[in-house]
Amino acid sequence: MDRERAERVLSMFEKRGEVEALASAGAVAAHACLDRARGRLSAAELLIGAELWESAFTNAYDAYRMAAESVVLALGFRVPAVAGAHRITIDIAQAAVGAEVDAFAGAAAERFRTGRHEAEYFDPDRPVEKTEVDARWAVEKAARAIDTVRSALG
């Protein structure tokens, strides 16, 4: 884990009041959160089997986000309920796992986040249905994120 890079990003968010140090954060909390992420990923896989694409997608996103939260917890912080909390969490995780690893990087992370938003908040003027391809992409992305975090946490 690139702690120096992660600390620079954390410092920026801390100055804005968008992260907070958490006494109970650390390795134990990070591993517990990662276990929760694995559970959500398992649920997403079952939902694919049931051909429930939208539910599979949102559960895979939750697994992805929880994997990122595991990194933040390992660093001794948490992201409270603030505007952009998911994006902040993912940015910190990407900084921590390093530039050469794309588990939480750029356009794919944004596609995942906005795809989850579309699935969660129905807009009758712009309905978006998740497909099997979407759900399988989401499960694959979440699985890679979980594997990356597992390796980073050691």
Low confidence ranges? none
Helix/strand-derived category reads: mainly alpha
Number of domains: 1
Outline, from the CA principal axes?
A: globular
Give the N-terminus to C-terminus distance in angstroms.
Answer: 9 Å
- Percent of residues in helices comes to over 70%
- By DSSP, the count of extended strands is 2
Rg to the nearest angstrom? 15 Å
CATH superfamily: Nucleotidyltransferases  domain 2
CATH architecture assignment name: Up-down Bundle
- The CATH topology assignment is Four Helix Bundle (Hemerythrin (Met), subunit A)
Largest pleated sheet? 2 strands, antiparallel
The average pLDDT value, as a whole number, equals 89
Query: How would you spell out the order of helices and strands?
Result: HEHHEHHH
Q: What's the helix count?
A: 6
- Give the C-level CATH assignment: Mainly Alpha
Sheet with the most strands: spatial strand order: 1-2
What is the percentage of strand-forming residues? under 5%
Account of the 3D structure:
- With 154 residues, this protein is mainly α.
- The chain has a single domain, classed as Four Helix Bundle (Hemerythrin (Met), subunit A) (Up-down Bundle).
- It is 70% helix and 3% strand.
- The protein has 6 helices and 2 strands.
- It has helices spanning 3-15, 27-49, 53-74, 85-97, 106-120, 132-153; strands spanning 20-21, 77-78.
- Strands 1-2 form a two-stranded antiparallel ribbon.
- The protein is globular, with a radius of gyration of 15 Å.
- The N and C termini lie close together (9 Å).
